[in-house]
Structure formats: structure tokens, C-alpha cells
What does this fold into?
Amino acid sequence: MNYAKIDPNLCKGCRVCINSCPKHCILLGDSINEIGYQYAQFVPGSPCTACGICFYVCPEFGAVTVFKDEEDANG
Ligand code: SF4
Ligand code: SF4
It folds into this structure.
């Protein structure tokens, strides 16, 4: 299973990854992180292809990590 893991405390909720994912795998959650932003969350079970677009477009270094063919979808 492929998935993207988003570090809640590095994300600033800019939505760039959300708007860029061709498979609509990422949503903005309701929770607030420790620096005061709503943060993006990967939707478990969504059809991620591990294309890496979310990783490349994210302006916050280290916020997104993409995993390909991992058994544990929750990272
Ligand atoms: S790797 Fe691609 S398909 Fe998977 S969440 Fe990121 S943009 Fe979407
Ligand atoms: S692009 Fe990065 S900072 Fe922006 S919402 Fe996605 S994970 Fe958060």
C-alpha cells in the first residue's frame, strides 16, 4: 500500500498538497497543531500511487514523506 505521511507539527495548512494530489488522498483536518494551523491529513485507504507530487509541492521541508508498497498504511 502506498501512502503519504504528513507531520502535523510541520504542516502549515497551505492546501497546496491537497489541491495537487491527482487522487484526492489528502484533506485538511479539523485539528490544530502546536503552531496554530489546521494541518493536512492523508485519508487512510485512499488510492495513493506514490507519485510524490505532494512531497515536491509542499513548501515546508520535511512535512511530507511518501511511502511506496508499505504494509502498514498508518506509518
Ligand atoms: S504521493 Fe501522489 S497520489 Fe499519493 S498522496 Fe501524494 S500526490 Fe497523492
Ligand atoms: S503542502 Fe505541506 S504545508 Fe501545505 S498543507 Fe500540504 S503538508 Fe501542509
Notes: The mean pLDDT is 95. The two ends are 11 Å apart (CA to CA).
